[in-house]
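Task 17 of the worksheet. Students: predict the tertiary structure of the chain below and write it out as structure tokens. Keep your answer in the requested format; marks are given for formatting as well as content.
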Amino acid sequence: MITNFKSLAKTPLRRKALLIADAGYGAISIEKAVNKKWKVLRKKINPEKYKRIFVVGIGKGSALASITLAKILGKKLTKCVALDVEKPVINSKFLILNSEFFKGTHPLPSRQNIAASQEIIKLAESLEKGDLLITFICGGGSALFCGSELELIASKTVFKKLTEAGADIFELNTIRKHISEVKGGGFAQIAYPADVISLIASDVLGNDLSMVASGPTALDKTTKKDAEKILKKYKIKGLKPIETPKDKKYFKNVKNILFISNKDALSAMGKKAKKLGFKPIIASYALKGEAKSALVGLAAKALRQAQGKGRAVLAGGETVVKLGKALRQAQGKGGRNQEAVLGMIYKFKNLNIKNSVVLSIASDGRDNTEAAGAIGDFLTLEKAKKAKLNLKKFLKNHDSFNFFKETGDLVYADKKSFNVADLMLVLRDLK
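Model answer:
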């Protein structure tokens, strides 16, 4: 699924690192995962007992997931609607008659998102007792699923100020829940009294299902007071949080299921690493912190345990890129995965790392740019030196994309995998 595999695989160790990463992508391939996991789920759900079945997708990758399930359901499907960052290619006449796919904006919501969200809300409002609503809830849904003009204005303000301040996803989504009528369980309330099965692709640390896409079908654990504390912490004024639905009756017909997570990807990567002769170590499923130093700890672990066979130190998680006040208007381009690799390369610039490779990729193939992430090793340093690239300057300006564009080390991937946060690898060979 790595589209520029051949051009990146310039050494045997690089090739192995890319094979391991590709195994991770394979495990979270949307079409493969839906077809495989539905065979197990349908026995528990028993779709045959419902007269009407609806499929709704919210978030990145949800359109492809929805259309894949729609094809499986066939004539049992009443209607399918999805809101994603792009529309899927539809070849089936049946799906054209019974499906609607909307393209929205991300990471900031727009009126385009509101219009699409209103169509999803209308569908939910039409549901009756005895109907089944199957939802795919995916990362990116917090921005895409935007129910009103008031939420749109508030969301833009919150996203800009909180991300610039380095707030984590839990803080950000707590606020998003309390400025929305569809998040924080609001969508479950609208769909009541129908049965709701939410298949959730987790992109949050710890797989808190109420936080993925700000939990549209999950009973919210946070309160209005929690939101107010966060706003006060970051000195954000002018927003008045609302309370999320707390009446448990709206959730008695709802089943929120962890459909896929980074454990699926990291497990597959570990198996591939072992097959290639490395000892796999999964350091964390919930790695966080500043991107520029995220891989340093993984590399240290690989170095400390560098006895016997080579090591493949793996991690999943979500780091942050903190912008200084002077850089908020800067022209630097990149994502947290690219910055993580650049930070690692900068740390190792004076060391002999010919037997190591570092790699970090966004699981859905989008690292805030058209690239999925980056790969780095001694070849990267040699190319940077030859081109007279100042690593420290690129890192300071958060311009990792242009650095790796110059060295030819950007990783590109098919955008057909679930968003389960980021996947990181430090590969060390002792041969």
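Marker's comment: The chain has a mean pLDDT of 92. The domain at 5-28+263-428 is CATH 3.40.1480.10 (glycerate kinase, domain 1).
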